[in-house]
Amino acid sequence: MKTMYFLLNCFIYMIFVIGCISESHQAKIKNSINQEYPNLENINETIKLRSKSIQLSEKEAVSLFRRYNFYSSQWNLSGNFENIFQNNNNGTVKDKKTGLIWQQSGSSDRMIYEDAKKYIVRLNKNKFAGYSDWHLPTLEEIASLLEPRRKDDCFEDCCIDPIFNPTQCICWTADIFKSKYSDEPQIAWTINFMAGYASWTFFKRTNYVHYVRAVRCAEKLEE
Fold this sequence. Notes:
Layout: H1 2-20, H2 23-36, E1 55-56, H3 58-68, E2 85-87, E3 92-95, E4 100-103, H4 113-125, H5 139-143, E5 170-177, E6 187-192, E7 197-202, E8 215-217
Parallel strand pairs: 1-5
Antiparallel strand pairs: 2-3, 3-4, 4-8, 5-6, 6-7
């Protein structure tokens, strides 16, 4: 009985202390929390990701993964970007979190980088799923699909939501690897969904082939 009485008094005291905290101090606490966890306040807002290709160094790529909390088995094991997927039942998947529409599968074959660009041209010419504004995803866009593996066996489970076809295990991106040894673009960033990380490939060499998973912005409407 004495213990219950003691706990009750402690609870009343805590309420009194919290009530005495000034509004300015409460604002400071809220600001501190928002700085530590910047995504909490805007958790339901759409996050716009860069769609134009650029050159990225490895340091810049690591920073990108950590900024958006993208999962990576190399750079951000605790990453867990919260996608909100919707199956459009037309071969595409919409992510309501980013406003992007993805191919549910992608190319059926692996191909060199130049053929990957031609694949995008064909998609647009044929108006895949009714649209003609598909593009090769940037590293920023396609990295948003990475997630921790659900099973221990990497051959049974890829680091991507099961709403997608896992066949496209390594995909090209539109971003170029920024090398300190050469100004000439010759290496493209790729995403490995089987291992869960970003890498790069010499796209000018014809023996390097990967899959394509095209993307478009949901807000762009067909005329």
